[in-house]
Amino acid sequence: MSSEGAPRTAEAGPVIPPLPPGYTYATVSDKISSIVLGQRRRPGWFAGFAFSFLLVLLLFGAISYLLAKGVGIWGINIPVAWGFAITNFVWWIGIGHAGTLISAILLLLHQRWRTSINRFAEAMTIFAVSCAAMFPLLHMGRPWLFYWLFPYYPNYMKVWPQFRSPLVWDVFAVSTYFIVSLLFWYVGMIPDLATLRDRARSKAKQIIYGMMAMGWRGSAIHWSRYEMTSLLLAGLATPLVVSVHTVVSFDFTIAIVPGWHSTIFPPYFVAGAIYSGFAMVLTLAIPLRKFYHLEEFITLRHLDNCAKVMLGTGLIVAYGYVMETFMAFYSGEIFDKYMIMNRMFGPYWSVYAIVILCNVLLPQSLWSRRVRRNIPALFALSLIINLGMWTERFMIVVVSLSRDFTPSAWGFFIPTRWDWAVLVGSIGLFVAMFYLFIRYLPAISIFEMRHELAKEKEGE
Amino acid sequence: MPQIFHPSTNTISRVSIYGCVVIVAFLSFALYEIGQSPYYTEQNIPQPQPVPFSHRHHAAELGIDCRYCHDTVETSAFAGMPSTQTCMTCHSQIWTNSPMLQPVRDSYETGRSISWTRVNALPEFAYFNHSIHVAKGIGCTTCHGRVGTMTLTWRATTMQMSWCLGCHRQPEKYVRPREQVFNVNYAPPPDQLALGRKLVREYKIQRLTSCDTCHR
Hints:
The complex is a heterodimer of chains A (460) and B (216). With 460 residues, chain A is mostly helical.
């Protein structure tokens, strides 16, 4: 009744850096499950979690005040009615995309290097989507009526949501994304939860992990069903990598505001999402491997691969910037031309400068193999790209809205302290959830690492 | 390794999974029913008033026109509540010593209005105008029910948005000839749909169902 057997996958692919000699099935399981089950005190974990939890409390405070006073506590007004809330929404939902790409597309493409990073990347997706989903609800003004977004029936109003509005498509895109990602993450964890159940010493842990493992015994029929389920879920999740951020970009492109109304948005948003997502994967992976001594599992090769994906998607994003500028002048539209000039030289010129510096210029250093394998440089770059991508969304949302067609209707958006509190608080929530995740769930897939070990021993 | 779970856990887990589905379904059904019940909507519940005014007596038995008291119904959004002076046009002559009418006489002497309990109310975010409905052939009793049968007045409908839209989507089911609007005993003819379609054309009634018709 043990779940220690190797799964029956038959996949071929490029060889990943082998685990150092001396690792056996048992020691792989020991090493990863000891993070969860180990008795060692970890003051660093506690300090980090406590700090991020303080930020969560700040978020709760800011939300309570928002519910009491209304969205007027933010800096939004006409014409800039979509301020930080929508910027944060697009940023967070974009970050989630890397997790889905790693877990679904790289699985279907038999990219075996994904094995050691997919679990925490999927967790990152869940937490990022949770943070993202919070913002449109808070921005609604009356969040307790959020169920009006869904076509629920029967209702007392006898009206459907406006299906021609991309904001309704968004509801379906994001909720589908969340449900599929959550299922994928959970199903992928069941064999590991069984390992934890079998290795747990205390009765409480045995019962909790046992319930979460749903009676997994590692029999051949379990594995065969598991393989089928995870392939099906990967198939379901694959189109979501492209579709979710496409629909998010429709929130903008369907409107006629200069700076929003552009056909390049869907691919440019998807590339931007994967770009910022991989930056966040690195932001999380680099401290994780250092503090939990997982350098043998998450190797330099993994970081190097993530950096290459960032470089590629970053170039697509840069192409998007170039094309926006080119099309504004090529079209000859005075409003589009003005929009670009206003972005570059208007009152928000510094936002544009940060975007170009962080998303286009500095990441070019990733062409160099030395930078891709230099951990402090890579960590710094991942933070810079996160900042750059947040600023890009701010530029699209706020700068476009602040000056559209009629000069007499122009305005200026200045974030209030409550705007910042909700943004910082959402980062705190994300980090706090991640702290809980690495402490209570296996951050690296144990059974898939055992499987890699089995492949190595067979000499593949 | 000893067993962590007793074999009965299998049954418990299955029951709890299906139980969750049943509970969620039951809760949504219960919430829906409560939201439509008179407990929440005040439909069909007679409201106590400072003076037990009977619409049945005044409107049906005596035949006083609705507009005698609700005198702004044809010209403004609000149908109008009668002033104490309106009551006293008759009650300065008849039932002058009735103890039931003491609050009316007090109000007449002090000049302080009678504070009636409101029976029909729409929320402030819904724009509503009586005069246009009356002018297009919607009778009083279509929305307010058979007030000629009400001793104490009650709300005759849920006044939820689905009820508004029921008529806005199919006005031909409810419209009546203009001269019948204030008839409290009006009963729709058997060929209501045919008559309704004719009146909808004749009165140029539009199907106003866009959000900003009411939520301005």
